[in-house]
Amino acid sequence: MTAATLALTVAALALIETPNGVPAHPGPAGETGPWQLTPRVRVDRGREIRARGEKVTDEAIAREQVLWLERHLESGGAAPVIFNICLAWNCGLDETLRGRAPVRSFDFANRVLVMMANIERERGGLSP
Q: What is the pLDDT of residues 62-72, one digit of tens each?
């Protein structure tokens, strides 16, 4: 994934996860912040970021999680495309790899792709 695609994906995920710019109350799995990151993701991806000597921020964790999902989708035999990454972001890697993602996760992934297109259009990258 290119750096530009990664940045666009992370930006769109934040806008879909927190549409009013205000993070929701913690979710059922303890999800918090603009990207609704779970405590487990914060610990695991935070450890990887710190190991590289980089500053741990929610955005850095979100970027790292997108890249982690991309790698693990591919190694699990699924296409590491943005749609599948967003699907796994929403319902988890295992459910995505098993082909058991719920309809709401497909809706989530579609909304992220639409948001990415809207961001690109606003930046002048896509025509209407």
A: 999 999 999 99
CA 59 – CA 88 distance, rounded (Å): 18
Distance CA 110, CA 36 (A): 18
Helix axes 58-75, 82-91, angle to 10 degrees: 110
What's the predicted TM-score (pTM) here?
A: 0.93
pLDDT one-digit tens code per residue, 20-35: 877 778 888 899 999 9
Distance, C-alpha 1 to centroid of its chain? 13
Sign of the dihedral through C-alpha 66, 68, 69, 75: positive
CA of 69: how far to CAs of 2, 42, 76, 124, 126, in Å?
Answer: 15, 14, 10, 29, 26
Sequence-ordered strand ranges (E) for 6-103? none
Is residue 60 a contact partner of residue 49, using CB atoms and an 8 Å limit?
Answer: yes
Cross-strand partners of 76:
none
pLDDT in the model for residue 70: 98
How far apart are alpha carbons 35 and 42 in whole angstroms? 11
**CA neighbor of 11 nearest in space, from 48, 63, 47, 80:** 63
